[in-house]
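Late entry, iron/sulfur cluster complex.
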Amino acid sequence: MDEISLALNPPRFVKRARGKAPPPEARAYINPAVCEGCGDCSDQSNCIAIEPLETEFGRKRAINQSACNVDLSCLKGFCPSFVTVAGATIRKKIGASVPDVTLPEPTLVALPEAGPYNIAVTGVGGTGVLTVAHIIGMAAHIDGIGAQALDITGLAQKGGAVISHVRLARKPETIAAQRIPSGTTDLLLAADMVVAASAEGRHLISAAHTRAVIDTHATPVAGFIRDRDFDFRAGSTLSIIERAAQKPAYELDFHRLALRLFGDTIAANLMIVGAAYQLGWLPLSEMALLRAIELNGVAVPLNLEAFRAGRYVAAFPDQVEALLGKREHGPALANMTLAEIIAHRARHLTAYQDRGLAERYRAAVARIAEREKSLGAGDQLARAVAINYAKLLAYKDEYEVARLFVDPAFQAGLSETFDGSRSISFHLAPPLLARFDRNLGRPRKMKLGAWILPVFRLLASLRRIRGTALDLFGWTPERRRERALIKTYEGGLAMIAAGLTRTNHACAVALASLPDQVRGFGPVKMKAMDRFDRDWQTLENQFRVQPSLSPGNDNARAA
Ligand code: SF4
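Prediction complete; structure with ligand written out below:
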C-alpha cells in the first residue's frame, strides 16, 4: 500500500486513535506461561503485532496491544494460550511517571547559514513513525523555517520499512531536492534500528555529519513472522549504526520505557523527538514542537507527555534505570547461568508435579554435567540438557494448562495490560469435545466463558494422577507420544553419559537440544514430534559412529 492510499484509508487502529472507529469488542491476550513459542499464531495471522517475549523459558509471544488492529486473526493459532478480554481498555501508566521538575533549557544547534539541515527518521510502517516527520515539518513551518518532507514507505502498511527525509532551511529555495543526499544527514532519529542499519539507511548517514538518537528495541520485522527463532541481532545492528554515525549516539530502549510510562509503545516516537530536542540536536523551538503536536490532532495529551518524557531522560540520564524498573518476566534464558536454570526448572517441576520429578531432573542433569566437566568441555551440553529435559518432563497437558490459568500470575498479567471490568473468554479445543474442521485440517477451537475457571481449579488439583491409569487425558495419541519422547530422551542421556568424548561433544549438544524444536499443541506439536523422531534417529546414529578416542588422543584432536 502506498502513502496516498494509506492516508485515505488508514489502518483500523489509527482510525481508533483518531476516534473515527468504534472501540473493539474484545482484545486478545496471550498467557505467556502457556505459550510455547511455536509461532503458529504468527503463521496463521501474518500479524506484526505478535511480538517476541524473551523469558526464563526462552522466547514466547506477546501481543503489542498498541499496534494490534483487533481483528483477532491470531486466535487461529492452534493453542490454548489465547484469551479474549471484553469490556476492557488498554491500561495506561502501568509503571513510574516522570517527575514534575523544571527541565534545563537546551542549547539548540543552529540552522546552517546556507543549505538545509537534514533529518532522517527510520521506522516500521504502522507504528506511528510517519507522524514524527509530519510534526517536525509542521513545527518548522510554525518557526518560519522552510521545510520539505518525503516519506519513502516499504511494501506494507504494517511491518514495512519507512524512511522519512525531512529537510529544514532558512531559505526554502536552498532545498534543491526532497531526498537527503548521500551521507549528509545531520540528525538520525532511529525509531527502528534495522531500517537505520539497512543499505538505504546507512547511505544517508556519515560519521562526519550525523548525530543519532536510537531506539534500541528490536521491533518485529516480517522475518520474525516466517521464522519463530529469527535472530534480531540487536547488538550487531546497533554497532553498525554506531560505526556509521557520530559518536556518541544517544541510545535507549524507548519502546520499553514508553510501555512502562504510558502503557503504549506509540509514545516512543515523540519520546525520541523530545530526547533529540533536549540534546540540542533539533533546531526548532519547544513552542513550535508542542503546537505542532496539538495541530496533528492525534493522541495529543499522550504525545505532549511523551515529548516531555523524552526531554527528561535526555536531561537526567541517571534517572533512566529507575524509570525503566525491573523486567517483568525475569532474566531472558540466554542470560541465565547453568545453576540458575537448574534451580528455576526444579522449582517449576515441583509446581508442575512434585519434588520427586524435580529430583529425577536434577540427578540426570548432574550426571551429564559431571561427565562433561571431566572432559574439560565447558557446560554447553549440561545447559542443553537442563533446558530441554525439563521441557519434555513438563509437557503442557490439560492439568498443566489449567494450573497456569489459575496461577495468580495470569490475573496479574491481565491487570497490568488492561483497565476496567473484564469479561474473559478462553479459546480451547478440548479432546473429545472439539470438532474436526476439514477446511482447517485441525480441530476447531471453542469459545468458553469464565465459568470454566472452577473446572480449571479442579483439573489443576488432579495433576498428580498424570500418567496413571486414572488419567483419562493421558490416553490420547498426543499425550502418549509426549511420554514416549521422555523415554527416548532419557535413553539418549544414558547413551551420552556412557560414550561422551570431546570428538562427539558437538553431536551430543545437538541431540540434547533437539526437543527445543518440539513446540506447540495438537497438530502443530504432532508435526514437530514427527520431525523430532527423524532428526533424533539421524543424530543418534552420528553420535554412535563418531570415534570414541582415548582421552589423550581426544584432547590432542580438540586442541
Ligand atoms: S503457543 Fe504458539 S500459537 Fe500459541 S501463542 Fe505461543 S507462539 Fe502463538
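Residues 30, 35-41, 61, 77, 79, 81, 520 surround iron/sulfur cluster (CB under 6 Å). Will revisit in the morning.
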